[in-house]
């Protein structure tokens, strides 16, 4: 849909929501088939996942947040979009905190 209508709010929202869902859940718990499906979905959506979608991929968070921010701009009064954007930011911050803690333990 975004190829035909680049600023389509619902499509931006759904793509951002998908990006957040793929980033927020650690694939270490996924069965191999589900991890492969997530990789295929991420590459098809252009979310920028590397070999492991949960590790060190700030671009994926940025892409998801950019899509949600664009959806919020297109539909400024939509409470669902604003709530999802706030939730995504909170999840990103928590993931960054976990990553910082892991790196701190490595170098102490």
Explain this structure:
The chain has one domain (9-106). The protein is mainly alpha-helical. Helix 1 (9-24) runs parallel beside helix 4 (79-106) and helix 3 packs antiparallel against helix 4 (79-106). The chain is 69% helix and 0% strand. The chain has 4 helices and no strands. The N and C termini lie far apart (49 Å).
List the helices and strands and how they pair.
Layout: H1 9-24, H2 32-45, H3 58-74, H4 79-106
Helix pairs in contact: 1-3, 1-4, 3-4
How many H/I helices?
Answer: 4
Q: Please give the alpha-carbon distance between the first and last residues.
A: 49 Å
Largest sheet: none
Cα shape = globular
What is the N-to-C order of secondary-structure elements (H for helix, E for strand)?
A: HHHH
Which residues sit in consecutive blocks of at least 5 with pLDDT less than 50?
A: 49-56
Structural class: mainly alpha
| Radius of gyration over C-alpha positions, nearest whole angstrom | 15 Å
Average pLDDT metric: 78
Oligomer: single chain
């Amino acid at each position: 849909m975004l190829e035909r209508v680049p600023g389509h709010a619902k499509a931006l929202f759904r793509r951002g929501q998908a990006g957040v869902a793929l980033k927020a859940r650690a694939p270490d718990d996924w069965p191999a088939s589900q991890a492969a499906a997530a990789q295929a979905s991420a590459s098809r959506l252009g979310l920028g996942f590397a070999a492991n979608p949960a590790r060190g991929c700030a671009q994926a968070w940025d892409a998801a947040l950019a899509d949600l921010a664009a959806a919020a701009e297109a539909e400024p009064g939509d409470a669902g979009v604003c709530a999802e954007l706030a939730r995504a930011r909170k999840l990103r911050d928590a993931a960054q905190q976990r990553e910082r803690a892991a790196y701190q333990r490595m170098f102490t």
